[in-house]
Amino acid sequence: MTGAVPPKGTGALARREARLAWGLLFPTIAIVAGVVILPLLAIFWISFKPIGLADLRPPAPVVREALRGDPGDYTVRYRIRNSSQDKPITDVVLTDTLPAEIRVMGSMPEMCETGGPGLRCAIGTLDPGQRLEIELPVELTGDDEDAAEEAVEGSEPLITGTSENILTNTTFTMDNFARVFDGGEFWRVLGVTLFYTLFGTIGAIILGLFAAMLLNKEFRGQGILRGLFLFPYVAPIIAVAFTWVILFDPFSGSVNALMVQMGVLSEAVNFFGQRPFALIMVTVFAMWSYFPLCFLFILARMQSIDTDMYEAADMDGASPFQKFWYLSIPQLLGILSVLFLLRFIWTFNKFDDIFLLTGGNAGTRTLTVNVYEQAFAVSNIGAGAAVAVVIFICLLLFSFFFFRFISREEGL
């Protein structure tokens, strides 16, 4: 009688292979967790905390030491302050090792005591923003005042204390999200973001498709033209953005001057500072800047399509539009879907283009610009993190619906 054959994938060899696979994948998983997951969790944590820009550095006592006075009347002065303006610091203790060039003379403050060259001052509690001075009467053990001053300032006193860290405590709030959704401002910003993202993505894909169709045939100078088509994508974004701003400037821009001379405009238009032109211009800029990536992907897919069906369509008398619509589009649908997904996510997260072109003014304020304004312009890190969480949720929902309603036959 032969023994029972274990189900596929449950034998000892399969288990060893599974352990080996997980062992090989562990470095990648650890890197992804460190680079992506941990910062994401930190953003979620901060979004529920009442944190300002100044709270990123926890409260700490700060001390400065200096030798002051005249011969026969020297003092070592410690200037101490609380770095926080709203959090007290408790159990503050100053310790220092006095250099051999000086020695303590006379009475000291009650909070301080010496033991040989060592000094210890139990300060206690420093109130928010409090400043404190401690002076020790000393005399020089030698005649070199400069050497004594250098020795005192180089002794590096140590000061310690304990204070509540708002980043790690258990105080949470929903005020950050309430601030984000307050009034109709959020929905206006979301509408601008969706307009910029949707039309910028679709426009870049359409321009890339037309460029790929143009360069899918062999002709003289094809390589040079392909290189020129890549220029918007590889050029430094800051240089390109300022070039656009200068070209469309209402006072000295050549585009305005040319359109006024041709009679297209009766007067110069502030394209990047006037509604609704500013939003249209930043969207057109996104189309122009990122169509080369779509062009490369689509051209690579086009060149892998079998030409036999096009020859058969020619024999059947199909028009160029019919060949494009019924033959090319079905073959390109997979790569177009991937491009739409990637470009939508990247454009939704874009910050530098709009910030360089308009600074988020004139109706071009998107969610990413809102993150910057909340976190740094208003110094509210918690509110900025809350907007970042909203962006993440929006993209998560978009990805879910995209994969839910786009069939695998379309390339995904």
Describe the 3D structure.
With 412 residues, the protein is of the alpha+beta class. It has 14 helices and eight strands. The strands form two sheets. The chain has a four-stranded antiparallel β-sheet with strand order 1-2-7-4. A hairpin with a 2-residue loop joins strand 1 and strand 2 (73-82). Helix 1 (12-47) packs across helix 14, helix 9 crosses helix 11 and helix 13 runs antiparallel to helix 14. It is elongated and about 110 Å long. The mean pLDDT is 86.
Helical percent range? 40-55%
The CA-CA distance between the termini, in Å, is 48 Å
Question: Over the alpha carbons, how many angstroms does the gyration radius reach?
Answer: 34 Å
H/I helix tally: 14
| Structural class based on helices, strands and sheet pairing | alpha+beta
Unreliable residue runs: none
Task: Bin the strand percentage.
Answer: 5-15%
- Topology as H/E string? HEEEEEEEHEHHHHHHHHHHHH
State the strand order across the main sheet.
1-2-7-4
How many beta-strand elements? 8
Shape annotation = elongated
Main sheet properties:
4 strands, antiparallel
**pLDDT averaged residue by residue:** 86
Describe the structure concisely for a colleague.
With 412 residues, the chain is of the alpha+beta class. Helices cover 53% and strands 15% of the residues.
Features:
4-stranded antiparallel sheet, single chain, 412 residues, alpha+beta, 53% helix
SSE diagram, text form:
Layout lengths: L11 H36 L13 E10 L2 E10 L6 E9 L4 E3 L7 E4 L2 E9 L4 E10 L4 H9 L4 E5 L12 H6 L4 H30 L7 H8 L1 H4 L2 H11 L6 H8 L15 H26 L5 H8 L4 H29 L3 H6 L9 H11 L3 H25 L7
Antiparallel strand pairs: 1-2, 2-7, 3-6, 3-8, 4-7, 5-6
Helix pairs in contact: 1-14, 4-9, 4-11, 9-11, 13-14
